[in-house]
Amino acid sequence: MDQTSHNAIIEAPWETGEFLNLVMQAAANGLAVVDADGRIPYVNRTMAEMFGYPAEEMTDLPVEHIIPERFRSQHVEYRRGFMADPVRRAMGAGRDLFGLRKNGSEFPVEIGLSPLHVRDCLYVLASVIDITERKHAEKIAAIHTRRMEALNEQLASYTSAISHDLRAPFRAIRNYVDFLIEDLGGEVDPQSRQYLDALHTAVREADHMILDLLKLGRIGTGETPAAAVDFDELFTEIRRQLALGEDVELVTPSDWPDIEAPRVLLVHIFQNLVANAVKFNVSSPKRVEIAWRRNTDGDIVFYVKDNGIGIDPRYHGRIFDPFERLHAVEEYEGTGMGLSLVKKALAVLGGSIRVESELGRGSTFFVTLPEKGIANE
After folding, report:
1. Would the pLDDT of 34 be above 70?
2. Are 309 and 281 spatial neighbours (Cβ–Cβ below 8 Å)?
3. Regarding beta strands 300-306 and 286-294, do their DSSP bridges make them parallel or antiparallel, or are they unpaired?
4. Residues 338-360: pLDDT tens digits?
5. Fold for domain 3-130?
6. Collapsing DSSP states into helix, strand and coil, what is residue 335?
7. Is-contact 355 308, C-beta < 8 A?
8. Are 369 and 299 a contacting pair, CB within 8 Å?
9. Where are the beta strands (DSSP E) in the chain?
10. Is residue 230 helix, strand or coil?
11. What's the DSSP call for residue 320?
12. Is the pLDDT of residue 373 over 50?
């Protein structure tokens, strides 16, 4: 007999019953074969351990025996329906399912079903996963989410109350300064007038800081429904609100991605970034370019690029902190809250922001947003 004939006679290892049994026993999922009568002719080791039985004790056991009693009658009908129309069902499809251990305890499971036709007989291969730990983690996550939502609501409420209370004395100080300037008129010496003007400016800046703090507390609270975003219309509004002069070139792409998001938050994000790109800029003309791409994760990455004064890399992390300023008020107005407001709005949307910049070479801010599901539900 030649070698070719000899090889044809030898059965490949993976075609033997012993090999297939080894594969079934080594599987990480619980595996059980159920026949047309609802009995279990075969289980693997993982399945037996999961339900607390010796493997031989589960053999020939009715499948309803490992299902909580309150579900058994319903399961019989479901099993008969599956046998009448055997279609593979993926893991996790349908309702919450539970298994019943030998000791009477219940546990949540995911079950995948696959029909098997063997010698004109129909069987079902059930693949079972114990999802107790996952359910526990989901429960803990839900508890933390509810706590964070409650804390955010409290923070917004406290911020609103404190901001309202703080603004009252600042308004009084500003009014009294105005009264002094008006009453004294030309009798104020230059030094005193300088002090009064500085006091007036400081009070105005403090009032702006309080307003920004109030905005920060309100972001992410309440309903912010998502809808398809028209970016051409959005940036037209931003141009109008910022009253961009003729020395500003705002360049936008000819096409935009399809995104569903709370529009009010996107206006807030891009308006702050464009305003900063124009404010921290001494070029002529001032150029602000908006573009986008899709990253490998399928998220949308926008970038806002300018030809402004740039940012020292040492401060790239700090600029997103509340009230963080890199320049004196005399150089550039503002409270230093703009980018922290942008960062929080993006956190609500499930997005992120980073910057690339060098002094004298402009800045590019990268805004990453998921394509869908970014409403604050």
Report:
1. yes
2. yes
3. antiparallel
4. 788 888 888 888 889 999 998 98
5. Beta-Lactamase (3.30.450)
6. coil
7. no
8. yes
9. 30-34, 39-40, 42-43, 61-62, 97-100, 106-118, 121-130, 227-228, 248-251, 260-261, 286-294, 300-306, 352-357, 363-369
10. coil
11. G
12. no
Question: What pLDDT was estimated at residue 267?
Answer: 83
State phi, psi for 284 to the nearest 5 degrees: -140, 110
CATH class belonging to 223-377: alpha beta
271 vs 215: CA distance, rounded Å:
14
Query: How many other CB atoms are there within 10 angstroms of residue 75's CB atom?
Result: 15
Would the pLDDT of 4 be above 60?
no
Compute the C-alpha angle 324/325/331, nearest 5°: 165
What is the full DSSP assignment across 121-190?
EEEEEEEEEE-HHHHHHHHHHHHHHHHHHHHHHHHHHHHHHHHHHHHHHHHHHHHHHHHHHHHHGGGS-H
**By the 8 A CB rule, do 265 and 259 touch?**
no
SS3 assignment, position 259: coil
Residue whose tokens read 């053999």? 59
DSSP H/E element including 342: helix 338-348
pTM: 0.47
Average per-residue pLDDT for the chain: 80
Of residues 241 and 72, more confidently modeled: 72
Buried/exposed code over 1-37 (b: 16+ C-beta within 10 A; e: otherwise): eeeeeeeeeeeeeeeeeeeeeeebeeeebbbbbbbee
d(CA 242, CA 264): 16
